[in-house]
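I have been asked to look over a protein record a colleague put together. Alongside the sequence sits a line of tokens, each denoting a local backbone shape. Please read both lines and tell me whether the tokens look consistent with the sequence. I do not need a full report, just your reasoning and any doubts. I have pasted the whole thing underneath without changing anything.
>
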Amino acid sequence: MTSKSLQTFEHIIQDPIDLLNHFDSLNNKPPPPEAEVLKRAGLVMALSALETYIEDRILEAVDTVTGIGNETSLLAKFYKSSLENDLKYFHTPSTEKVKNIFQKFLDIDVTEGWLWNNYDPIRARKELNLIVKKRGDIAHRSWRPVVGQTAPHAVTREDLRKQIRFISDLVKATDIYINNKL
């Protein structure tokens, strides 16, 4: 069964896909140098889509565990309010943060479920952390290309395509793993 969180993610991930497609449409002719911002923004948005999925998915799972709408139980209220408080500080979905929040509230190491095609949990954790680091560098330092500098762009077209695919596959693997655990 597909979670509501996965359905929401599939809608949100279209924004970075659209940015990549827009970059490609500009690339048919010599693109202006400022078009590079589309790829950097695409990476930031793709990781934001993952963050939203993680937040939504743990809330959805907690509702399943506690009973949706079980507002009469003092324990359920405390549990949900503790999670909501922790989510205020969640922000960047690094491997450690994702693992810790699911471990704390559901006693599940979701990173063990990151297994698909050519990825195993170890490789998936490493890849996510690389993407998170790059997103942080872009969001806080811009990594905007400097005129006359021959350094490679912070995010190539192929990088962004692969990163969107990776994040999408990671979300699907997470969703399947959680569904099997609950």
User: Anything to note?
Assistant: The chain has one domain: 4-181. The chain has a mean pLDDT of 89. Residues 4-181 form one domain. The first helix runs from residue 4 to 12.
